[in-house]
Structure formats: C-alpha cells, structure tokens
Specification:
- By secondary structure, the protein is of the alpha+beta class.
- 27% of the residues lie in helices and 35% in strands.
Length: 181
C-alpha cells in the first residue's frame, strides 16, 4: 500500500465564522450609524401634538390658505437686535390693517426656546414689538387677524447672526400649494 498525497479541501474553521459574524454585524451597525446620523442632522423638527387630528384638518386649512392667498396680501418680516417688525401690504403697496398680529418663534428642533410675541400697530400697515431673539435658526409663524378671520398666515425660516436677519427659504409652507412661490 502506498500513501497518496491528496490536497486537503477547504475547512471552515472558527476563525472563518468569526470573520463572517464581524462582517455581517459590522455592516448592519455601520448602516444604522449612517442612518442615525442622517436622521438627526436633517430632521426639520416640526411637531404636532396629535398627527391624526392634524391630518383630519388638512383639507380645511388648505382651502382657507388658498382663499387667503387670493387676496394678494403680502407680509414682510424684519428682525434686528431686539426689534421685531412685520409689514402687511396689498399688491400696490397699500397698507393692510389688522386687529391682531402675532409672531410664533419656533426653533427647528426642540421647544425650550420657543416664544410668542404679539405685535402692536405702528401705523401704515407696520406692526412691531421689542423682544430679544437669540441668534440661530428660527421658523417664524406670522398670523394676522382682522374681524376674527385670518388675513395672513405664513411661516418663513430665518437665521439671525450678528443682529441681522437672513431669510433662509423663500418658500412659505402653505398646505396644498406645493412648489416655490
């Protein structure tokens, strides 16, 4: 009898299994970390208390916004230092008088610095209030009411730095309007 010199076949060892497990779970953990980073860095932070109720009110709000936009009233926000100013005009720069104008300053993420300021009439369609506004990004929900009816409702996104305001997004979020203005 003679001994044959056969080449040994592939043997799956414990080291191979460790390699498979490291690659498998490493891939899953890497994807989860990337997705968590994107989720936390891009989330707008817009929150409603009850999403079901908000979804039920959407069509009525969209209809009211379309009706309001048909009036042609424009709003112009200015925040500098501690002065918050808001001008309401018709297309021919005619001033618009409102009974009540409020500014809801909201941080894009979190609620601990949010505040509401009621603006006083300064004349000629200009409304204002003195209130400290911290630097950073804000979503400012402006609401103007006359005779119990909302005549202007917009929410520009702004940034404050060195006491100056920059409009970050020309698009104002109006339900049902879609696209840029």
């Amino acid at each position: 009898m003679s001994v044959r010199g056969e080449k040994a076949g592939f043997v799956f060892t414990g080291r191979h299994m460790v390699g498979v497990l490291v690659l498998f779970f490493g891939t899953i953990i890497s994807v989860n970390l990337v997705m968590a980073y994107y989720a936390s860095s891009t989330w707008s932070g817009l929150v409603v208390q009850n999403t079901y109720v908000a979804s039920q009110q959407f069509n009525a709000k969209a209809s009211a916004i379309r009706e309001m936009m048909a009036t042609g009233i424009k709003g112009e926000l200015d925040v500098s230092g501690e002065a918050i100013r808001y001008r309401l005009t018709l297309p021919e720069n005619q001033p618009v008088l409102a009974d009540k104008v409020t500014a809801h300053f909201k941080r894009p993420v979190g609620e601990h610095q949010d505040f509401v300021a009621e603006l006083s009439t300064l004349g000629g369609g200009l409304y204002g209030v003195s209130h400290e506004v911290l630097p950073g990004e804000w979503i400012v929900e402006m609401i103007a009411v006359k005779d119990g009816k909302t005549i202007m409702h917009e929410a520009p996104r702004i940034a404050l730095a060195d006491g100056r305001m920059t409009l970050l997004d020309e698009r104002h979020e109006h339900p049902g309007e879609g696209g840029r203005k």
